[in-house]
Amino acid sequence: MNRRRFLKVLGATSGGAAALSGCGIGPEPTEHLVPYVVPPEDQVPGTATYYATTCRECAAGCGLHAKVREGRVIKLEGNPESPINEGRLCSRGQAALQGLYNPDRITDPMARGPNGEWQKLSWDDAIGRLAGKVKEARGRGIVFLTGLEPGSFGELVDAWVKEVGGRHVTHESFAFEALREGNRRAFGTAAIPLYDFARARYIVSFGADFMETWLSPVGYQNSFTRAHSFDGDRDTLMAKFVFVGPRLSLTGMSADEWIAAKPATEALLALAMAQVILAGRLAPAPLDAGRLERLLPTPQRVAPVVGIAAAEIERLAREFAASQGGLAVGGGVATQYGDGAELLVVAVNILNYVAGQVGKTVRFGPNQAVADAGTFRQLTDLVADLAAGKVELLLVHGANPGHTLPAAFSQALSKVGYKVSFASYWDETAAASDLVLPDLHPLEQWSDSRPRTGIHALQQPVMQPVFPNTMHTGDVLLRVAGKAGTFKDYLQSRWKELHQRVGKGRDFADFWTDALQHGGLYAEAPAQPVRLDPGVVQLLGDVGGAGSGAADEPLLIVFPSLALHDGRGANKPWLQELPDPVSKITWHAWVEVHPETAAKWQLANGDILLLKSPHGTVRAPVWITPGIRPGVLAVPTGQGHKAYGRYAKDRSFNAFELLSDAPASFGGRAFAAPVAVVKTGDHRRLATVEGDAREQGRGIIEVLSLARARELKSGAHPFAEREVPGYAEDAQKAWAEAQHQKASLGDYAGTPPRWGMAIDLSKCTGCSACVTACYAENNLATVGEELVVRRRQMSWMRIERYYTADADGRRVGALVNPMLCQQCGNAPCEPVCPVYAAYHTPDGLNGQVYNRCVGTRYCANNCPYKVRYFNWFNFAEPGGEWESWPDPLNMLLNPDVTVREKGVMEKCTFCVQRIRGAQNRARLEDRSVRDGDITPACAQACPSEAIVFGDLHDRSSLVARLAADPRGYHVHSELNTKPAITYLARVMHGAARGA
Amino acid sequence: MAETATAAARGTRVTYDFVTRAIARTLGHPGKGYFALLAAAVALLAVGIVCLLFLLRYGLGLAGYSHPVYWAVYITCFVFWVGIAHSGTLISAILFLFRSGWRTAVYRTAEAMTVFAVMTAGLFPLIHIGRQWYFYWLIPYPNERGLWPNFKSPLIWDEFAIGTYFTVSTVFLIMGLIPDIAAVRDVATGWRKKLYAITSLGWRGTNEQWRHYTRGYLYLAALATPLVLSVHSVVSWDFAMAIVPGWHATIFAPYFVAGAIYSGVAMVITLLVPIRKLFHLEQLITVHHFENLAKLCLLTGMIVGYAYCVEYFTAWFGGNPAERAAFWYRAFGPFWWASWTMIICNAFLPQLLWFKPIRTNILALFVISIFVNIGMWFERYVIIVVSLAGEPFERFANATYNPTWADWGIMAGSFGWFFMWFLLFVKNFPAVSISEVKEVLPAPTRGKAARA
Question: DSSP readout, A591-620?
């Protein structure tokens, strides 16, 4: 071989090798780490910085801690100092990151050209155009439509609009008009009070979904759990929770009793309960309540209308009063059926009032800012003005009326002279406008908000803007108005005023820095006493008339989606792929049908129905569930976007299209409509993660009645017989135990920590915040609808939801449990791995070495909990068909966790990176790890504090104490897997039902 | 012997000379039919290779897997082909030790089938793993990382069992071939002469060579015999050692071995019928041979049927709710059709072999053998896929499963691969043993007939 030929062969082979690795076969190509030339002073590589800010994903205004690594925010956690969410955060809040790094963000100011095409502008040009248009439109109708802005930005908009002679309208899709109107009619104030769940001893929710979207879901869920969880040590009374509503929502799943009253008759039930309490003098009612007694309907009268026995109503009323801590809540979106929905709130208020709870569990004073949102009537008035050509310039910020308002809005837009959008994404409204001035994401901007009276929450930029050519809308407004300074200066000037009021003579700089560090200023709001409006008696006659709707047409309820809210979450793959906590469906919407209705119409899961309301028509796949009243159908909001980026566009249907254009009697929207149903004959496979909805006695979820749970003394083991079944006793003692002790890998009995977890099912509600936290912390891939249909979802944390019922199918309820790797002491996955990729760490974890895994998947087959997930494709391949993190979404990847390659098995390891981090910190500080140093992402996010993590070998740790709780049990313990997760049985008032 | 007697009665004397000529004729110039078959096999293989390339490029997600069905068609094919590989050694080694004369005419085909089936089976564990390019991590070899495979894992046992079986059965096949290759070497010309000269390893047929050869063959047969039982026992432990209900059963080793022999014998029948016809070997491979194979089929089929009953009985009698749920799902769940295909093909259809007219009807046997092959494929499919899909422990996680083009394509490729090798073999090496068939012929009389 001569030199020439040698080189030729060499070239051909190395080219082949390059092609091979380019095809994804063989080792991944080398990547280069480039060090800083001039390192930024405030950044220590590998060390996270946390900034306090405020969540703007809904009106609740939870406090945030943003975890920033190397200049990029990579995770959002709750701010423990915020009195709203007390360190907890829901899925939607955590997914704000995917809004920040959304690949479909608008990167530059854009204007519509003469032929309707979009052209990039410079900011000077864009602001000049806007200023010009403002000048032209002055006096000819300028409207600024924003989302709810209870803070300085809202004030700036108000001032700006006043100056240019326009009007400011705020739009929240779920503005709780019925609740506000009901409070106004009952108490003379349209404010929304604070509902103190934590102090309640008996909770009745009349369709208020306070764990999903009702007012302040994270905070309410947290305080609800404090009242409703069972804590044997405290020996307090566990509050009872009754849910009244046509649909078993996530909130309803936590209930001890679900009463599916006939829709729109719930008010009668509440009034009859109040009547029983008053008539029986069961509670120290305020003096002015006495005159209601004769006016209220008796249980006997309402029973046939509501569809519940009179004795049941009396029992509920007696329990409610006897608890001396009753709390009735109402006015949820899903019971905002139409005209008269405010009467339900009036009735609920009367019930609370006669039970003497107003001022105790219902406290006016710390009022919710959402009460200031524009009503639907204001918006329909606006639409009428638009259609009449009375508006020359429309500016839209922080709202997407093109999706959430009736189609009349989009049609009326053509009558508007000039439309300006401040959207960050190409949503329906931005796409229909003439000028788009992309705002900074809330995580990139200065702002503040007052979500509740007394709370001044600050927002600070936690990182440099992802797209540098976006601008704070506040800055834009100031520049258009020709004012000097930035919005930050404006904000500080507002805070200086606040400082003068509450600063107590401190230096402003200190005051400001202090507020920034703590995420804001938290003060108690003064109580605001209320009395029952005497005029309320005239309303009582109207109650009950609402229930007499047409009986033969099925009623369709539109309920707010937990993950997608009114649709604003639809462009975030974490939220799209988050299984709905009730239906477990991802990526598309569905219609809920009761099994009896389904049998009558001969429907199967996935059959497509045509739903025709008087206002619109949609096509929806059927999901059959016992969790809905027969004859009622329900669809979620959130999907059906016609724009809004790759993740949201063209998915399912927009449920808002089914709703009436006209505001109901309370000034809000009717979230129900009669529908005609047509079977199309089409079918689709639901993108669900649910297999069997029945637990079938597998001991996955144990339930104790409250009486039984109270009797348990420490050391008792009600689930012990399951722990060692009779037939396995010999094997357990003589053989398996010996084998277990002798296992050469890891130290099962020794002194190193044995990490463990306790999950209290009497606290877990199934809200799935932990699932999103896991996605964020552990770089879990989202796989998309097509792959979820094929069950390829990668969620390490799975919330299993099983339905329960009496033997005759009545008294339906649901049980949930979070299923994640149990870190078995005697793990079935470990011995079967041929290459030791699954191995036992000395501290008791079932480690998974991604680099070593060859992907035989034997471990996943042998895992009885089915908590191992396989990388079927390369989800990180840039530009690949299954790419999970298109640029710049990849910026949210946690640098402490490997992004897994295709062909590799992955699983939960109790956030081993956090364990090692805490151990390293402890070592640097020359101490041992203390209980509470380590919090896995799921436990950190959990709004109900159901998950506790720690060292089982440390007898003083909380987790060790919980693991020894008499309610504790292990799932599938008959397999001798020795899980490190102890579940504490759910405790329920009344008899426990089987799944 | 009976078969030669019948052949003789029909007018053709089966002599040493006839045997050599008849078998050497099979190596003659291939006809169009042969090339058509070979082309079909290569085309199937090409389909499989293309599918495999896609799989390597994009990942295993192209196949039908779901959570929790982590093993599916590829492992089904693996067990199926390992099963096919079983009858070869059974016929050549065990029947050799039992001195069953009838094996001589069929054992070469069976052995060749064994070797190629193991070669096919061995591909599947490599194809089915997630990172195929790291397959060698399963092999214990000294490396700078100081890593060793996990000898507790049944997959490692598998690797050794299959490896050993492949080595021994290949040696056994080659060893049996030596005198025959020498025989055809003496009549061959051209490149084949060279090939046979090398592969016959200098065989001259001397007394001493024959003495060593027969001894060696006997010992090798004795060595191979336990392998027949061990290989599929070990393969069955891939499943039995797991805790999946439907897998985790003590009956698995004998159940799988019987099933393997059953499917292997059926495959021998499926292969012999066309070979006998194509190569005109009716006088050597007679109806009597087929009847004996059918009897073996009936016996092993009965064992398999019994094992099915035991599985269901144990699930019911054991009272373990997960076990009961798994078998209820198997029989009446969404995969009922697969389970009943398996039971009808494997347990009911072979009952026809009780009747002599069917046992001696070649066409009927051929049809039954194909159904047994299908049934045995479905047996593995049911055990693997259906047990996983049912997921009796974590009710929430069960799911259905549908194979995709990647599954079918690679499975088709495996048939192409197997038949390609088999077709190449039968055209280049004697498919029926020349020397051993002669062993069972009556002693030659003096004269022309004695010269072979």
Answer: EEE-HHHHHHHT--TTEEEEEE-SS-EEEE
In angstroms, the CA A515 to CA A669 distance is 38
Partner residue opposite B130 with nearest CB, options A695, A865, A902: A902
Residue A69 belongs to some domain of the structure: no
Residues A359 and A379 in one domain: no
Q: Let me know if residue A90 belongs to a domain.
A: no
Distance from CA of B234 to the nearest CA of A (A): 14
Contact list in B for residue A882 (CB cut-off 8 A) is 61
Kindly report, residue by residue over A109-149, the tens digit of the pLDDT: 999 988 889 999 999 999 999 999 999 998 889 999 999 99
User: Strand pairing partners for A118?
Assistant: A112
Q: Are residues A233 and A144 in the same domain?
A: no
What amino acid occupies position A882? W
- Domain of residue A395 covers 110-170+372-451+455-522
Which tokens go with A753?
A: 């920590």
Closest-CA residue of chain B to A24: B57
Q: Is A793 contained in some domain?
A: yes
User: Does A32 fall in a domain?
Assistant: no
> Which residue in chain A is spatially nearest to B67 when comparing CA positions?
A791
pLDDT of res. A89: 95
pLDDT, residue A745, reads: 44
Is the ipTM, as predicted for this complex, more than 0.85?
Answer: yes
Q: Do A846 and A753 fall within a single domain?
A: yes
Residue of chain B minimizing CA distance to A880: B58
Domain's final residue, options A633, A655, A683: A683
User: Is there a contact between A793 and B65 if contact means CB atoms under 8 Å apart?
Assistant: no
- Please answer yes or no on whether A791 and B66 come within 8 Å at the CB atom: yes
Domain stops at, among A654, A683, A712: A683
CATH number of domain containing A202: 3.40.228.10
Q: What is the CATH number of the domain that holds A434?
A: 3.40.50.740
Q: Do B61 and A873 touch (CB under 8 A)?
A: yes
At residue B450, the pLDDT reads: 45
On average, the pLDDT of chain A sits at: 89
Q: Do A488 and A562 fall within a single domain?
A: no
Q: Residue A25 is nearest to which of B57, B321, B396, comparing CB atoms?
A: B57
Which residue has 């566009």 as its token pair? A649
- The CA dihedral of B222, B227, B228, B230, to the nearest 10 degrees, is 140
Q: What is the pTM of this model?
A: 0.91
Q: Residue A360's closest CA among A323, A318, A314?
A: A323
Query: Of A959, A952, A723, which is closest to residue A844 (Cα–Cα)?
Result: A952
Residue A536 has what pLDDT?
85
| A364 & A378 share domain | no
Spatial strand order of the sheet with A591-593 comes to A672-674, A555-559, A632-636, A591-593, A617-624, A607-612, A676-683
Cα–Cα–Cα angle for A975, A978, A983, rounded to 5 degrees: 100
Q: What is the widest separation between alpha-carbon atoms in chain B?
A: 81
Burial class (CB in 10 A: 0-12, 13-18, 19+), A347: buried
Q: How many domains does chain A contain in total?
A: 4
Span A669-724, pLDDT tens digits: 999 999 999 999 999 999 999 988 887 778 889 999 888 888 887 777 888 766 55
Dihedrals phi, psi of A327, to nearest 5 degrees = -140, 115
Looking at the partner chain, which of A834, A869, A873 has a beta carbon nearest the beta carbon of B59? A873
Cα B395 to Cα A695: distance, rounded to the nearest angstrom? 6
User: Which B residues in the span 395-424 are in contact with A, Cβ-Cβ below 8 Å?
Assistant: 395-399
Cβ–Cβ under 8 Å, residues B20 and B430: no
Question: Is residue A714 domain-shared with residue A762, that is, in the same domain?
Answer: yes
Cβ neighbours of B59 in A, within 8 Å? 24, 871-874, 902-903
Domain of A715: which CATH number?
3.30.70.20
Is residue A22 very low, low, confident or very high in pLDDT (cuts 50, 70, 90)?
very low
Taking the CA of residue B432 and the nearest CA in chain A, the distance in Å comes to: 40
CB contacts < 8 Å between A and B, how many?
180
